[in-house]
Design goal:
This is S9 family peptidase. By secondary structure, the protein is of the alpha+beta class. The strands form eight sheets. The chain has an eight-stranded mixed β-sheet with strand order 29-30-32-31-33-34-35-36, with helices on both faces. Strands 5-6-7-8-9 form a five-stranded mixed β-sheet, with no helix packed on it. A hairpin with a 5-residue loop joins β14 (about 200) and β15 (about 205-215).
Length: about 650
């Protein structure tokens, strides 16, 4: 903090604004998905450099690489799992032709930690011609493979779920054993009675439960009758719409779930599989549970993370070594989000990931034998942390007296006696999604340019209970926008925030909101930045990938309704004449979620009305800008646009 104060004082004295470069903030995270081998002797980690991803395995006694896995052409390693101390299973990601984004098509690749004996063991290319150096394959499967269980007591096999390919996700998945050394797959062990399924296995690798899309797409839960291998659906009377299975207990007789339990907030419950009795364990009064920390065996929860502003942790259960250790980590990194992402089987070594609003994340290694915590890697380490601006949790009362939560970031680059122009940054979704107190590229780049940034968890956002989430349904162009507009008006009355210079910015639903809010309060906003937005709601039932999804149209009817007059009223494309501010339009031509036609319609309407706008379009991008250079160019364009208009 002293160092931070010194830097801040220096900036105030010199009146020189230190900024984060668009190139630096646009870089991919270099390090992701660190995982220890079962014996704790090796560490595997995904590393991305110069836009290319690979899996690197390090010997922890020397911290030197002992193996690397990379693929030729447009393929790269994704998530992975240690099957034993020698062999890993890896998801294969594929970059679509003339596209920047990597996609998982369900292929699985197996390899020794030193990079030897690589084999494509599952997927549509598993039995075809080679696509990379020394990739041997077995029988091809036109299905999507997902690893269910590494089967710790079986060093040759894993349990996978295979879902036949379909355009809408309606196919029923099956469970198989898969040999990680030769790619041989067993006959079907179980088939889900419902699509979009998630199987739950016990400590012996037996399939016990399946949860999938039931009536209208809501969770349907079935338990497996071991004697007959039939499925028995659990009563809907004890399950809510927010029912989410987490893990079986250590005895394999009860299931830990998050659910509303007939209440507003989502809490933690224990569900007895035999009696179907439900035991309530914890529910917060303000927010839903964000995440749960389980014991190493996966059978006992001992910490809950809550996000009422900054992350907070509720500890419960027995005061075991794991609990004491986690408490120690939280005390070591106060005010940070601390994730236990991996540990060795004997519990002697742990990998932590520590992050905050001003830190994208740092990996640490804890060694029980020496009781030492060792720094490993930090993401975006080219950016000095002194240039990052802290985000403060805030609340304000909407015009109907409902309490709205959000975050206000005041730029460290602007002296305390100066007012910073305001950028209202609207999150996407909108339903079930929310802003968290976490590192955000957009926030930090905007703040480094000298702007205060407000993020609003408007009605419809997740995390604040079902009533709050449902209150945003069919309110896209009304109450949601009022929450955002009133949030901007509140922020403009705060210290160090300008009361007459404000821009609104967002992507996806945030892009829609940026334009819609500007039609509703044209006198408030000096400029609009809209990326990957939807501007004609009537097209959502016809264009894009949502109508083709299983229950996609059902969700759209829930969220938007089917009244054509309301859909038109909530479509900003019909009110362009009201907009007084210039608009920066960003979009990718390969966007399937909000197709490019939305940007074209908005552009054409602006030209027709004689309204000023700028145009930023990339032919190889989809829903957002993924390429580092494209993202940096977008940030530079946004910075120039804001400078001109604010």
């Amino acid at each position: 903090m002293k160092r931070l104060f010194f830097i801040f004082a220096l900036l105030c004295t010199s009146q020189v604004f230190a900024t984060i470069s668009a190139t630096d903030i646009s870089k991919y995270y270099t390090y992701t998905n660190a995982d220890l081998s079962p014996d704790g002797s090796k560490l595997a980690i995904n590393i991305t450099q110069d836009g290319l991803g690979r899996l690197v395995i390090m010997d922890l006694s020397t911290f030197k690489p002992v193996g690397t896995v990379s693929f030729d052409g447009r393929y790269e390693p994704g998530n992975y799992w240690w099957v034993n101390n020698e062999r890993l299973v890896i998801q294969v990601l594929e970059r679509e032709i003339a596209s920047e984004q990597h996609v998982n098509y369900g292929e699985l690749y197996s390899v020794n930690y030193d990079g030897s004996n690589g084999l494509m063991i599952f997927g549509y290319r598993a039995g075809g011609t080679k696509t990379g150096s020394r990739l041997n394959r077995k029988q091809s499967t036109r299905g999507w493979g997902e690893l269910l269980d590494v089967l710790p007591d079986d060093e040759k096999h894993v349990l996978i779920m295979s879902t036949p390919m379909s355009s809408d996700g309606s196919k029923l998945p099956t469970v198989h054993k898969l040999n990680v050394y030769n790619g041989q797959m067993s006959n079907t062990i179980a088939q889900s009675p419902v699509p979009q399924a998630e199987f739950i296995t016990d400590s012996d690798g037996k399939v016990k439960l399946v949860v999938g899309a039931g009536e209208n797409g809501y969770a349907a839960v079935f338990k497996r009758i071991q004697e007959t291998n039939d499925w028995q659906q659990l009563s809907n009377e004890v399950l809510g719409k927010s029912f989410n299975p987490i893990a079986l207990d250590s005895k394999n007789t009860s299931l830990y779930v998050t659910d509303s339990g007939g209440k507003d907030k989502t809490g933690l419950y224990k569900f007895d599989l035999e009696t179907e009795e439900v035991k309530h364990l914890f529910t917060d009064k303000v927010v839903d549970i964000t995440s749960i920390v389980f014991s190493a065996d996966g059978g006992t929860p001992y910490a809950l993370r809550l996000d009422d502003g900054r992350p907070d942790y509720v500890m419960f259960g027995k005061n075991t070594y794991e609990v004491k250790l986690y408490k120690q980590f939280l005390q070591t990194f106060p005010g940070n989000k601390v994730e236990l992402i991996s540990r060795s089987e004997n519990g002697n070594k742990w990998i932590l990931y520590v992050s905050s609003d001003i830190s994208p994340g740092t990996f640490y290694l804890f060694d029980k034998a020496t009781n030492s915590l060792q720094f490993l890697f930090r993401n975006l380490d080219s950016i000095p942390i002194e240039l990052m601006s802290e985000s403060k949790p805030v609340t304000f009362a909407a015009s109907d007296d409902v309490l709205i939560h959000g975050f206000l970031t005041l730029p460290v680059s602007v002296p305390k006696d100066k007012d910073a122009p305001l950028v209202v940054l609207v999150h996407g979704g909108p339903h079930g999604v929310r802003d968290y107190w976490t590192f955000d590229r957009d926030v930090q780049y905007l703040a480094s340019q000298g702007y205060a940034v407000l993020r609003v968890n408007y009605r419809g956002s997740g995390g604040y209970g079902s009533d709050y989430r449902y209150s945003g349904y069919q309110e896209w162009g009304n109450r949601i926008q009022l929450d955002i507009i009133e949030g901007a008006q509140w922020a403009m009355n705060q210290d160090r925030v300008s009361n007459d210079r404000v821009c609104i910015m967002g992507a996806s639903f945030g892009g829609y909101s940026a334009v819609m809010a500007a039609t509703m309060a044209p006198e408030l906003f000096d400029c609009v930045v809209a990326n990957a937005g939807v501007y004609d709601l009537t097209l959502m039932f016809e264009e894009g990938d949502i109508p083709d999804m299983l229950y996609g149209k059902t969700r759209l009817l829930e969220y938007l309704g089917d009244d054509p007059d309301i859909l038109k009223t909530f479509s900003p494309i019909n009110y362009i004449s009201r907009i007084a501010a210039p608009i920066l339009i960003g979009h990718g031509k390969k966007d399937r979620r909000t197709p490019f036609i939305h940007a074209e319609l908005l552009r054409d309407k602006l030209i027709e009305q004689g309204k000023p706008f700028e145009w930023f379009v990339k032919g190889t991008e989809s829903h957002g800008f993924y390429d580092e250079e494209n993202r940096a160019e977008w940030y530079e364009t946004v910075a120039a646009f804001l400078k001109e208009n604010l």
